[in-house]
Design a protein that fits this description.
Layout lengths: L1 H30 L6 H7 L4 E8 L5 E3 L4 H6 L8 E12 L5 E11 L9 E10 L6 E10 L1
Parallel strand pairs: 1-6
Antiparallel strand pairs: 1-2, 3-4, 4-5, 5-6
Length: 146
């Protein structure tokens, strides 16, 4: 059991870094703080989204992988005051074969021009494919808080 706890702790830390990195890049992209470059965008965000990704927005709208990269890429610099912070990250479950893992966290957004209200929080649950060195985002569900 101690060995499994160590594996889960290391995986939890890896996924926390993944979540932090994706959200930091996304916020920087929307603010225009990073150079507009398709390769950088794909490496830091687009390539991390699994082909079969489903993203359930706080509104209940369901987006597929094909709905996301181009509009996100085109939004470069469109929201200069946007910030995201992550808190209360928890690894929820690791599949017995250690191929998938689920995590939950609270995402706080400030200055989100396309969201009402602009300053908001959401509980986000993610299912990851963790079979490769780079985790893939398989399913993402965001639920508004308050």
């Amino acid at each position: 059991m101690i060995m499994q706890e160590h594996v889960n702790m290391a995986l939890g830390e890896r996924l926390r870094r993944e979540v932090d990195d994706v959200h930091a890049f996304t916020a920087a992209w929307f603010r225009g703080d990073v150079k507009i470059d398709r390769n950088t965008f794909d490496t830091r965000l687009g390539d991390r989204l699994a082909d079969g990704l489903i993203n359930i927005q706080p509104s209940g709208e369901s987006l597929s992988r094909s709905d996301l990269p181009d509009p996100l890429f085109d939004a470069h610099g469109m929201n200069p005051g946007f910030n995201i912070s992550i808190r209360d990250f928890h690894l929820l479950h690791v599949s017995p074969d250690e191929m998938t893992a689920a995590a939950v966290y609270v995402e706080n957004q400030t200055g989100a021009r396309n969201t009402v209200p602009e300053d908001n929080s959401r509980i986000t649950t993610v299912l990851f494919d963790v079979s490769q060195a780079q985790p893939l985002w398989l399913r993402l569900q965001e639920t508004s808080v308050g």
